[in-house]
Specification:
Blueprint: E1 3-8, E2 14-18, E3 36-39, H1 42-66, H2 71-74, H3 81-84
Antiparallel strand pairs: 1-2, 1-3
The structure holds zinc ion.
Length: 86
């Protein structure tokens, strides 16, 4: 069951509510009986986006510390011979 977010245009009261697709959208604020504005799950999309970037940057920074292979990539003029020459 999807979660819908509403924000009151009168008093600014915002809340989430679980509704099925068949249910009618809320239009009246439970706090002040003002007019509600429906917000389309922007919270879920933002959460996924930020989580993806956090995981990506986190693994990248940790691997560069322990793995020397990540260092040559940062150098502008790196020769492939340095990999086998030890
Ligand atoms: Zn209100």
């Amino acid at each position: 069951m999807p979660t819908y977010a509403y924000t009151c245009t009168a008093c600014g009261h915002s809340f989430d509510i679980h509704q099925s697709f068949a249910d009618d959208a809320l239009t009246v604020c439970p706090e002040c009986s003002g007019r509600l504005r429906k917000i389309f799950s922007t919270v879920g999309v933002t959460f996924k986006g930020s989580g993806f970037y956090r995981t990506d940057s986190r693994s990248g920074s940790s691997s560069s510390v322990s793995t020397p292979a990540a260092k040559p990539a940062a150098k502008p003029a790196s020769t492939s011979t340095s990999t086998g020459a030890a």
